Amino acid sequence: MAVNTYRQDEKTSDVSNFKTLTRTLGYLRGYKVRTIISIAMILIQTLIVAVLPMICEYAVDVNIANGDARALIRTTLAGAGLVILSWLLTLGYKRILADVTNKIVYDIRREAFDHLQTLSLFYFDSRPTGKILSRLIGDVSSLKEMFTKLITTLIPNVALVLSVLVIMVKSSPRLSLSAIILLPLLILSVYFITIRGFKNWMSFRHKNSNMNAYTHEAYTGIKVIQAFGAEKETIDEADRIVKDVEKAWNKAVRRADLLNFVIFWSMGIGYFILYLFAVRWLKLGQSSVGQLIAFASYIALFWEPVKSIASTLNQFTNQLTSAQRVFELLDTQSILQEVPDAAKLKVTKGEVEFKDITFAYPDEPEVQILQNLNLHVKSGQMIALVGPTGAGKTTVINLIARFYDPVKGQVLIDGQDISKVTLASLRSNIGVMTQDSFLFSGTVKENLLYGNPQASEDQMKEACTRLGLDEMIMSLPQGFDSHLDQDTLSQGQKQLIALARTLIADPAILLLDEATSAIDTRTEELVQKGMSILMKGRTSFVVAHRLSTIVRADRILVIQDKGIAESGTHKQLLQKNGIYADLYNSQFIELDKE
Asked: What string of H, E and C letters represents the secondary structure of 272-308?
């Protein structure tokens, strides 16, 4: 199975920006009323801002020109009232939109997290955790800025530009040319600098994702890094990755900065054209001082929002890449799909059968792990799986739990094809325990009841007593209510709790993958005793490198060369003097010599 690492950029689907934007705006439907109210407030506030220069023009050309002080005071008060109203409207719509954007981001993050729970194990096996977190946290958070910029910056500024253009053209078509004449240059600049810069921002997002993946990996493996004295190499690699991020950022920003240069010169040229035309027309008596002052204000009102729009579009392009990455996550479909009429699995005996199973990972269909595997396991049998690393032992476990589907063939439980039953009913009848006995942050009790929250406290304590775990738990500060983290307990203690968790869940079929690989001899005895209790009356599959844990298995399967190379009991396989005998002798005869 190929794994995307922090050294590789992720591949993203080619989706149009318009489609991504439309989908993003779709989240506003759930807050339609508040969004409409806020947009209405924005438009009113924008119109007020556009009207203020006209009031100034009226005050100069009418009130002052006529020497009417009272009228000037009334005009000034009217202007002041509009300014206060504009401030109140701005305060109002910003508060509404802050609440709306926070709720939308919450909705998207919840949707993304919920969707992750539906994805198959392959999705998580094929990429670093840091890259998944980068989309779930960083990219989703970027959408908040996208909504805020879109509604509070882009919409009012576009409305202001259009309003100013209308007023300018209506007031003096010739003077309005000072702004309009440069619009084609501006539009072309926006297209080539901002829209075409989408790939640069996407590259930055990929490099940033790589950095998050490496950071997560480095902190997770900090004990190994320090144990091998690899701090310098880790820092050097981090520097290389950070430099990649910096280069991608600088490339995107350099392109974006060109737009500010174009706007700066366009604004200056606009003022030059205005005053050039005005001087000529003032001589002809076609313009007034008030109108000139108003037009100077309108030039500023035109180019300032244009500058803000350009800056927003630049950031918008960056945030649009985040939206695309989030939607790509949401559109990712699990390779495991339930059939429309999936039935509930009914386990009466616990018989398991493999029929002509061929398996390969989805991204490497040409590399077959298992080929035409056939196996029938009777109810209550303990089946041990041994063999070289990578032969397919864990694959057998994963196929029974339906973490993966075979390329060909069927896995049957009590004659029922597991691909045609609900995943919930399948997993509720199967107990899985791996060498990585992961415990969640929380209390001992919460971890023990994780697989069966309905279990009573007596059932929980009984399971711990049967495993000899009660003494260890009661030695903790708060007993069953003691809080755990990944460093509170030893690996052996974690595995004992994981075993008790599985026992409390009371599954019909057990899948134990290297469950005793990291346990000391004394703890192994406790686990072996617990496993014997747990397996009684249940069909069990045990993957183990420690052959001492499987000598009492009803059948031992040696998985090698894409199938079952040997099959039999411990004694039968030793008598064959084949692969299993070699494995057994390499583990125990050498130990006896020592």
From this structure: HHHHHHHHHHHHCCCCCHHHHHHHHHHHHHHHHHHHH
